[in-house]
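Give me the fold.
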Amino acid sequence: MTIKFKAVGVSSIMELLLSETKRTGLFLLLILGIVGFVTAQPATYRYTPVSGWSGQVNDKLEAFLNSTKVIQTRKVAVFDCDGTLFGQVPYYLADEAIYDYAAHHYQGKNDARSQEKMAIIKRLKSEDNTSQQYVQDRIDFLSGMRVEEVERMGKDCFHEKYQQKFYPQMRCLLADLKDYGFEIWVVSASPELLYQGFVHEGLGIPKDRILGVKSVIHHDSVTSQIVFPVPQDGGKADLVQTQIKAQPLFAAGNSRGDMELMLSSIGLKMIINPDQKKVETAESAGQMKGHTVLDFWRQQPATVIVSCEDVPNLPKGATNDTYFTTAKEGIKANAAHAANEYE
């Protein structure tokens, strides 16, 4: 078979090829050959080293990611939010957003709603911020607000006081995971609606993959009826099974509350800025009882320990006490962390 070509462009040549192969019955073979060529090409993966982390950490990350190239099923990476993807020093964004909103909208007022909300603020100030009651009281404070109002509350607080708090190292890591075909999920003990907006805008993660404490929405308003499982401590691992429905290949966190989430990973685990002073003594600490967070993860296989600088970002001349409403409520500040603290 001889095909004669004129001096024409590529598109014209392809038209001639298709015409001739159709005429000679080779059309199906040509299509199968093209499809086979395309599907046979290896996927391209490129690891970008994370600036600020050691060569040893980067080598472990690259080796792990390269080991996942052959996986054809879903590849899931799960992250805690506060202290893992962005800073929590000096105060948690969720607390600052709630305390600040109360100060501007309810404090000093005598109407029933304002009195109710300020009573919740009083309870929050005296509660353990890792307790189930604390989680419930945050939702109770938000109940009655429209969905858009809660999301706006989170965005406003982020843009005003936390805009520089996303860790640059985590941005780079997220990009690497995406390049290797991972789904990125966030599992947080903070109110879901409060965080979805600014985390989505800041990191590009779809809102439906940003999971937190949620309540029933009725007529576009938040209710106090929490939807289970609650992503606090072991509830984080339960939420992975319930909603994500895939065992993570990668999991990252920063505190005791992330232990079960991280242990759910069948691949690599990452602990960020782990506490190296407080020994966990409560029965609820589970496997971590008798250890600091740092010591516990030092003993676990397939775990990398990293640091991200987390210090207060204050306007010139400002202090924690003058800038953060949480400080004015007498809440103890979170401990700061320096870059390369654990390397």
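The beta strands are 76-79, 183-191, 210-213, 215-218, 221-226, 250-253, 268-272, 303-306.
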